[in-house]
Every structure is written in structure tokens, then in C-alpha cells.
Amino acid sequence: MQTENLTDILRQHPFLAGLSEDHMQVLVGCASNVRFAEGAPLIHEGEIANKFYLVRAGRIALETDVNARGKIRIQTVGPGDVLGWSWLISPFRWHFNALAVADVRAVALDGECLRKKCEDDHDFGYEMLSRFSRVMERRLEATRVQLLDLYTTSPGARV
Amino acid sequence: MTHETMNAPAAPREGVRLHPVTVKKVIWETDDTFTLQIDLGALGNTFNFLPGQFNMLYVFGLGEAAISISSDASQTGTLAHTIHRVGTVTSGLAQVKRGDVIGLRGPFGAGWPITAARGKDVCIVAGGIGLAPLRPVMYAMLRERTAFERIILLYGARSPLDILYRVELEEWAKEHNVEVLVTVDRGDSSWKGYIGVVTTLFSYIKLDARATVGYVCGPETMMKYTIDEMGRRGLAEDQIYLSMERNMKCAVGFCGHCQYGPEFICKDGPVFALPRIRHLLDRKEL
Ligand SMILES: Cc1cc2nc3c(=O)[nH]c(=O)nc-3n(C[C@H](O)[C@H](O)[C@H](O)COP(=O)(O)OP(=O)(O)OC[C@H]3O[C@@H](n4cnc5c(N)ncnc54)[C@H](O)[C@@H]3O)c2cc1C
Ligand code: FES
Questions:
Q1: What count of other Cβ atoms lies within 10 Å of the Cβ of residue A116?
Q2: Ligand with minimal distance to B256 CA
Q3: SS3 B5
Q4: Contact at CB, B221 and A101, closer than 8 angstroms
Q5: Nearest CA to ligand 1 atom 21
Q6: What angle do CA A80, A83, A87 make, to 5 degrees?
Q7: Between the N and C ends of chain A, which has fewer C-beta atoms within 10 Å?
Q8: Which three-class secondary structure state does DSSP give residue B109?
Q9: Which residue among B89, B108, B127 closes a domain?
């Protein structure tokens, strides 16, 4: 029953749109429902990355320590987003802190379990990799635009 | 009705004259941005404007700058302008105090085509001080709430300290069927809102592309990314309106300073439907 519910939840998440039923069943074996109250940490910079999250509700801030300036929040993720891909890439360590800034509901996917399934079933592994590549590409694009300092007024870029 | 007749200037020729007006109040919105509330005096009886129109504000001895009107068009006798201090004239305007007299010419240009949004959803996207010319749109739409479906306001600022009209943003967000999402480029640990460029906010709204009109105002780079995102989400180009706020001098179509091909930004714009000015977005200012 619990597994059925989780499958339904996973099916509704945009990251998994169109995923085959077989692959969905592989994935659900590594998934669990999680909640984080506002202020709760999800990820600690430097620690082993053994999870990723499909966010269903709430908001998570990614922050990093900039010595003298303290903690700077650089990005938020929210409903429909994916948090974390370091579980997929060696040396499997987080590069930032993440904490809930509004109560969060998410599905946590166990990275170790998934890595093993990706090894065992290369079709599944390819599916995961191509979905994560799209997420990374969008994130990279957003970061690039963020670096442009979009709201600065300059001649020819009025207001 | 065409776009041109829908949002035609209220009194274009009147704008050539310079009127002395009195500053009623100066409100500092952020470190470098302030709102001047102006008492129109005798001019108040005849002065009407449309959301999106601008005035030329003159600081005696320094010169003048084009500044959008940021107040409610239904108010009579007073006006507000929200100004980002960047150079000579805007720094001069930053020095004025209550009771000082400045010069005003206007109103100029074509406003936002509010009629085009009747019966539809409206997606307003603003970046930085680009929220100023869109504030009168929010006032107008909220006053006639039933004439429009959902109102979505996506606003991006550099940091939490650069957010304009904070109190009003919070109030608007409480209105029925109004969604207000604010994001910043970077925040400190007290900021619990969104972080990321304004286009990332599209992930958190549901856009009914066939029944939505988009209004976009901000620096041109921001507008370019925003219209790309709107296109990706299915909004037709002729349903997207932008404010092209480029350099101006006369503001009445005489000097040619703001002319790009057949378009004079000062009198045909600054608000245009995207298909009319798409070619300008990749062209530097003259
Ligand atoms: C239709 C229209 C509506 C506008 N509405 C508003 C508004 O509501 N609020 C508002 O604050 N501004 C608005 N602007 C922009 C405003 O007109 C200019 O910022 C202003 O003319 C700058 O004049 P200045 O004398 O202060 O700067 P200048 O002395 O002309 O410039 C001094 C320095 O600042 C740089 N500079 C000039 N303009 C800008 C700019 N916009 N941003 C950054 N650097 C600049 C110059 O390159 C120069 O280095 C609008 C412009 C137009 C065309
Ligand atoms: S500013 Fe002179 S023609 Fe437009």
C-alpha cells in the first residue's frame, strides 16, 4: 500500500514524466517519503552525498560559506525541482549546504541503492543520466544568467 | 481596436510645455532608489495618464530625465515617480526635498494595453526598477478585479535590500487570485524567499498560455530571457508587451534621438507588442 502511494507520488513529479513502468518500479525500491520542518538542514557541505530529493512542496535554500561574508544563499529549489546530483558523480560529496526555508515535503532517493541499480541495468542508468543532464543543463543556464547581474541598469539596458 | 488606439497617449502635445511642480514627499525605497511624490498644483485638474506612460523630469540647472509614472492613474492632483540614482539628473533628483520645485513635461508615450488583458490571465514580469512602470497596472487591475482572471506578478531584484514596494507586494499577494512571487539573485540567511533569476519563477506557476497576456519590464537582457521563457511556455509573441526604455531627448517625436526604423520609442512606445520591436532587442542604443 505504502509502495503504491509512493509510486503515484513519483509519477506526478515532473522529473519522472514519461518514465516507463519498469523503471518506475526500480526507482520506487530506493525511495522514501520525507518531510523537513522550516529551518531543518537537508545537506551539509563536504559530507558524503548519498541521496537526492524530488521536491513536492516547500522551499529549500542552497547556501555556502564565504568566510568573511558568512553564509550566502545562492539558490532555492521548490515544488517540481530536484535537489542534488553529487550522489551520481565521484567523489560523491556535497558542495553546499541546504536547509528548508519553508516546510518541505519530498521524496528522498537513496543514491547508493540507485547507483547499484544503474550498474545492474544500463538502460535504467542511461535514463537517470539523461534526466539529470537536463536538470544540470537548466541549472547551469540559470547560474550563467544569474551571473549577468540582470537587474543592473546600464546604457542600452535601460530601467 | 488596435493596440495603438487602445493605449493612445492622453495628451501628447500638451507634454511639450514645462510645468513647475512641487515635491510633496520623498520616500527612499532602497539605498539608491527613491519615490518622489509630486503635487501637481493647478496642472492636477487636467493631467491624466495611462499606466506605462512617462514624464520628463527637469532639475533646474542640471537637465531632464525620462521617468515612468509609478502611481495610481485614478488619483488626481498628485503623482509618484520612482527613480534609480545613476547619473547627473537622477542624482540631482535624489537631492530634492519636500517643498522643492522641479519641472515636469508629459505625460508621454503609449501605455500598457490593459484592454488586451480583459477576460484573460495576466503575467507581469518585472526586474529591478522595471516594477515602477508596472505598479500603475497593478492598481488599475486590482480596482477592476473582476475584469481580469488570474494576475501573476513575477519580480526579480538583486538582493532583498533592493526590493521595491515591499509592503504593497505583500498586500497584493493576499488578494484573491493574485500570485506574487519575488526572487533575488543572492540573499543572506534571513531571506526565506526565492533565490535565482526571475525566469526560474516560471517553474512555480501554471500558465494557461492561450489565455494569458504578458507584460514585461526591466533591463533589456532580462526582458530577452523572459520572452524566451514565455515562448517556451507557449505564449504567442503578439500576447507579450514590453517597455523599451531607451535614451530620449525631446520625448515628442521631433529630434529623432529614439528613432529605430519606423518606430519612435518616445511616442510609439515605450510599450510595444513584441512583434513590433523584436528586431530592436539585439540592437544597441544609438
Ligand atoms: C521611457 C523611459 C522611462 C524610464 N523610467 C524610469 C523610471 O521610472 N525610473 C528610473 O530610475 N529611470 C527610468 N528611466 C531611465 C532614466 O531615464 C535614466 O536612468 C536617466 O535618464 C539617467 O539620467 P542621468 O542624468 O541620471 O544619468 P547620466 O548623467 O545621463 O549618466 C551618468 C552615468 O550613468 C550611466 N547611465 C545612464 N543611464 C543609466 C541607467 N539607466 N542605468 C545605469 N547607468 C546609467 C551613464 O552611462 C553614465 O555613465 C526611464 C527611461 C525611459 C526612456
Ligand atoms: S526623443 Fe526625440 S524623437 Fe523620441
A1: 12
A2: 2
A3: helix
A4: no
A5: B65
A6: 140
A7: N
A8: coil
A9: B108
Residue B109, C-beta contacts closer than 8 angstroms, at least 6 positions apart: B9, B52, B53, B54, B251, B265, B266, B267, B269, B270, B271
Q: Give the CATH number, domain containing residue B220.
A: 3.40.50.80
Pocket test for ligand 2, best of B64, B246, B250 (most atoms within 8 A of CB): B250
Residues B89, B24, single domain; the answer is yes
User: What gap in Å lies between CA B236 and CA B231, rounded to an integer?
Assistant: 7
Q: Cell for B247?
A: 535614451
Rounded average pLDDT over B31-60: 94
DSSP3 helix / strand / coil % (chain B, rounded to 5): 35, 30, 35
* A82 lies within 8 A of chain B by CB: no
Nearest CA to ligand 1 atom 33: B87
**All structural domains of chain A with their residue ranges:** 2-147
User: What's the pLDDT tens digit per position in A44-60?
Assistant: 999 999 999 999 999 99
Q: What is the rounded distance in angstroms from the CA atom of residue B260 to the CA atom of residue B279?
A: 10
Query: Could you read off the pLDDT of A18-76 as tens digits, one per residue?
Result: 999 999 999 999 999 999 999 999 999 999 999 999 999 999 999 988 777 778 898 99
